[in-house]
Amino acid sequence: MANSAGQPSRSRDLDKLLLRPGNLVGENFEPGQQLRDDLREYVRILVVGAGGLGCELLKDLALSGFKNLEVIDMDRIEVTNLNRQFLFRLQDVGKPKAEVAAKRVMERVSGVNIVPHFCRIEDKEIDFYNDFSIIVLGLDSIEARSYINAVACGFLDNPREETMKPLVDGGTEGFKGHARVILPGTTPCFECTIWLFPPQVKFPLCTLAETPRTAAHCIEYAHLIKWDEVMD
């Protein structure tokens, strides 16, 4: 698809999904330009996490034509983030990830509005999450994923489909990664498949230095960061 100037449409990837029928769609799916325009104009998406995956998600969603985005993250930018979180610069070290990521994407993509939230996901009222059409996870914590999963499943009122809060969960570990869509009440939720995750043996340095949340984080922090300081 191209615009009037002959340039590729920003939503060309969405157009392939929304402007034509397919075999992997729901029975109520009606393709067309109105559907695409409504998704871009009215759908509100929350990105949870503004790290390596969250930065990519914000950029991709904005470039896909979605206009109403919000991002929540409790971390500040560390020097170790700069090699893989492309929205951040050296002068951003110490600043909230969510605020800097939102600002950078809005500077590069016209027409998108991104509201940042610099806080823990648990600090928000439950109703905050109910305002979004889709919640996209870019987290490195099993505990945080489980919390958002419980929140989304709590909104479900069977058989009312409009109460379903879709989750898009993604994650990486070394050179491996995964992405999946969770539809509460229809597909297995996060807790149903949590046993598929291998025990975590490595932790992101930004988590250890900034927001250690478990005893394992504290032990690893002492081993990797504080040990050399004490020995010197």
TrEMBL record:
Database matches in Gene3D superfamilies: NAD(P)-binding Rossmann-like Domain, Ubiquitin activating enzymes (Uba3). Chain: B, domain 2
InterPro entries given in the database record: ThiF/MoeB/HesA (IPR045886), ThiF_NAD_FAD-bd (IPR000594), Ub_act_enz_dom_a_sf (IPR023318), Ubiquitin-activating_enz (IPR035985), UBQ-activ_enz_E1_Cys_AS (IPR033127), UBQ/SUMO-activ_enz_E1-like (IPR000011)
GO cellular component terms, A-Z: cytoplasm; nucleus
Keyword ATP-binding: yes
Entry annotation: catalytic residues: 206 (glycyl thioester intermediate)
Lineage top rank: taxon: Eukaryota
UniProt-listed Enzyme Commission number(s): 6.2.1.64
Gene Ontology process terms (BP): protein neddylation
Keyword Repeat on entry: no
GO molecular function: ATP binding; NEDD8 activating enzyme activity
Listed pathway(s): Protein modification; protein neddylation
Any Pfam family hit: ThiF
Keyword vocabulary terms for this entry: ATP-binding, Ligase, Nucleotide-binding, Ubl conjugation pathway
THIF-type NAD/FAD binding fold domain sequence ranges: 33-217
Known function: Catalytic subunit of the dimeric E1 enzyme, which activates NEDD8.
Homology family: Belongs to the ubiquitin-activating E1 family. UBA3 subfamily.
Name of this chain's protein: NEDD8-activating enzyme E1 catalytic subunit
